[in-house]
Amino acid sequence: MDVLREVLLPKFSELGQIRKTANGFDVCCPVHEDSTPSLSIAIGTTQPAVMDCKAGCDPVDILTKLGLTWADLCTPRDEQKPSGEWTPHGEAVAVYNYVDENSELLFQVLRTASKAFPQRVPDMSRKTGWRWSLGGTRRVLYRLPKVIDAVQDGEFIYVVEGEKDVHALEAAGVVATCNPGGAGKWRPEYSEYLVGATVIIIADKDAPGQAHARQVAASLTDIAAAIEIHEAAGELKDASDHLASGRSLAEMEITWRGEEPA
After folding, report:
1. Which of 89-93, 95-99, 159-163, 177-181 comes out lowest in average pLDDT?
2. pLDDT band at 70 (very low <50, low <70, confident <90, very high)
3. If you average pLDDT over residues 214-227, what whole number do you get?
4. What average pLDDT does the segment 87-94 reach?
5. What does the alpha-carbon distance between residue 147 and residue 157 come to, in Å, rounded to a whole number?
6. Are the C-beta atoms of 106 and 137 separated by less than 8 Å?
7. Residue partners of 46: CB distance under 8 A and separation at least 6
8. Phi/psi of residue 65, each to 5°?
9. For residue 212, pLDDT beyond 70
10. Which residues pair with 237 in a beta bridge?
C-alpha cells in the first residue's frame, strides 16, 4: 500500500499546501498553527510512515488530528472502509487499487452507494493529489501481482465482472481478478497474463454479464490451457450472491467448457 498517496495525502490536502520533496512531502501540520508546510512525511523503513514536525509535534497527536491511527496505516487500502471519501458521484463505499507487476499504484476505482465507479490517478500537481480521469494511464488486471504468481504456480484463476466479486472469491480461498470498467471492457492485453493458465470465468446472470464472459473466453482461446464458464446456482445473480448464500464454488453451474463453441 502507498501510505503517503492513499491514506495521508488525501487528509493533508484539506489543510493547505503540499510540497514534493526528495524523500516524500512537506505538508501543513494539523496540531499547531501552520500556514506554511512545516511537517515532513516520508515512507518509513521500520514503520509505515515517518513524520517530522519542525515544531516538535508528536506523530500520534498528528494522526489523532487526522482521525487516523498507526493501525490504519498498516491496513491494506482496499480492506479499509472509506469514511466520507468524496467522489464526483457521491461518497465512496469502497476503494480498489490497481497496481502494476511491482505493486506500484497505477490508479484506483471507487464504488459509490449508487453503484457508480469513478476512477482516479495519483497526480501531485492537483491540490487533492488525484486526477479524476485515467487518460492514457496503463490499464491492468485487478490483483495483477497475485495473478502472475498464481499462474506461475499452476493455480486456477477466476475471472469475474467486478472488484466486489474478486474480494468474495479471495475470501473463499482462491485467486481472482477482473478488468477495470466492468462488462464489455476486456482488452486483448489482459489475456497475456493468463498464458497457460486454467481459467474459470464466472458470468453474471444478465445480458451484459453473459456477453462479457463470452468475450473473455474468446480472448483466451489458444492462450489459456483450459477455460470454463460458470454461473451462480439457481436464481442467484453473481459470485458474491452465490457465496453469500452459503454455497461453495463447487456448487456453481458449469455452463460452458473450452472444447465447445462459446
Report:
1. 89-93
2. confident
3. 97
4. 88
5. 7
6. yes
7. none
8. -60, -30
9. yes
10. none
On the CB side of 142, how many CA atoms lie within 13 Å of its CA? 28
Q: What is the per-residue DSSP string for the chain?
A: --HIIIIIHHHHTTTS-EEE-SSEEEE--SSS--SS--EEEEE-SSSSEEEEETT---HHHHHHHHT--HHHHHS-GGGS--SS---TTS-EEEEEEEE-TT--EEEEEEEETT----EEEE-TTSTTSEES--TTPPP--TTHHHHHHHHHTT-EEEE-SSHHHHHHHHHTTSEEE--TTSTT---HHHHGGGTT-EEEEE--SSHHHHHHHHHHHHHHTTTSSEEEEEE-STT--SHHHHHHTT--GGGSEEEEETTS--
- Which has more pLDDT, 112 or 194? 194
Determine if the pTM surpasses 0.90.
no
How many CA within 13 A on the CB side of residue 153? 11
Q: What is the mean pLDDT of residues 30-53?
A: 83
C-alpha cell at 165: 466479486
Quick one: pLDDT at residue 261?
Answer: 44
CB of 15 closer than 8 Å to CB of 30: yes
User: Between β-strands 175-177 and 226-231, what pairing exists: parallel, antiparallel or unpaired?
Assistant: unpaired
Average pLDDT, the chain: 89
- Bridge partners (DSSP) of residue 175 are 157
